[in-house]
Amino acid sequence: MSEKPRLTTTAGAPVPSNDTSQTAGARGPVLLQDYQLIEKLAHQNRERIPERVVHAKGWGAQGTFTVTHDITQYTCAKVFKPGTVTEVLSRWSTVAGELGAADAERDVRGFSLKFYTEDGNWDMVGNNTPIFFVRDAYKFPDFIRTQKRHPKTNMRSPEAMFDFWAAQPESVHQVTILMSDRGIPTNPMHMNGYGSHTFSMWNEAGERHWVKFHFRTQQGHKHYTNEEAERLIGKTRESYQEDLYNAIEAGNFPKWTLFIQVMKEEDAANQPFNPFDLTKVWPHGDFPLIEVGELEMNRNPDNYFQMIENAAYSPSNVVPGIGYSPDKMLQARVFSYADAHRYRLGTHYEALPANAPKASANVNHYHKDGTMRFFTNDFGNPDAYYEPNQYGGPVADPSVAEPPLRIDGDADRYKQHTADEDFVQPRALYAEVLNDEERMRLHQNMAGAMAPCSDAVKERWYAVLGKVHPDYEQGVRTAAQSDPAIPVTDDTPVEAAE
Fold first, then answer.
1. Catalytic: which of 18, 43, 121, 127?
2. What pLDDT is attached to residue 370?
3. Which fold has domain 58-137+186-360?
4. C or N terminus of the chain, fewer CB within 10 Å?
């Protein structure tokens, strides 16, 4: 048997005892000079950090992304060079629930990936749905408040949720997906991931294209009904973590295929919808999926807290060849995500192991001191702590500049032009994509979710559904008048339309 390593304090001093305090006599009291006790208690007090404002409950894994198809005509990003294999850190999550929420609740799921590319980290921070509830970040804090606990009752409030959604008709597209079969995936392996926003790419010639990212599960889509989820939650609140961890430990590595949709920069103005509106999808018939590569998650982190709880994803993390778009929500997220990490984790959160670039030899910046300055950031050149300087400090590289983003219009607060625009796509989803059984379950799920709401809020929401399709409104009304309990179905996977 090998000799065990010696226990020390964080300063490296050996510890004589790890089970008894220093006391004045056998019965005490405890001496304040027992700094080893104080250190142990102080660290225990600080083991938890503030949970994320949204996406608090999550599950993660490590893996690789392999490029299998050539898209260099659209992007010069090195991560997309044919044959390139890139390390990836993933995190999936529920949006609304707290850190202790049950995994199998009806909710949108976050789907975030950190690509450790040779040009730095690229974060794809998305959801398991191709759209979202609102198109403008001005309404995001209001929306999230409706998903959290009521300030008086300290309970979740369906009244607040449907009251908000009824006043924001653009949300009906996402609410329809949320209340459909897709609302409770069985685990992270059986759902898609989307960038959701419109992003941009540019190639070596400086030509820009608008793109959408689609990570389509190779495991097939599987979902729980409300009743199946309730039974499961009665047995375990950690079903996603169990399924994901055990699958990877058993060597059943989940995989996704990345596809992109591509739109020429100049074609954006000619669409019958706003291609930068987060509540809209791009029709696949007009913008077909183009295969790019394969994502495989094949390793469980050795320390969940270090790699998953400390993981900080932000759309601001882009690399040359990948950029933003005029999407209003995306523009706001570029600021708000990194700012949330600075609050939750600390000033230099980017240097934590989960967030540090793998290409660390190429990291050079002038961010100095402050809390969490636990690393050397003079890069061997202590005189070059400002810029410009004459001491050979790092300088900008104009060769990686993004081509100019075309902008047209006066600065103002613009409303959407046509009232019916928000109902066109959910109408197609309801009437043309869902079949009769899927529509029946949608009616029942929504009626059940609305049951605690006041009549006034219900009527306002029925009016929104009626603008989508009269059968939609009537179906939910009828389900609400009967028992809204969801019938148990078999375990046949439900294929989700995009």
1. 127
2. 82
3. Catalase HpII,  Chain A, domain 1 (2.40.180)
4. N
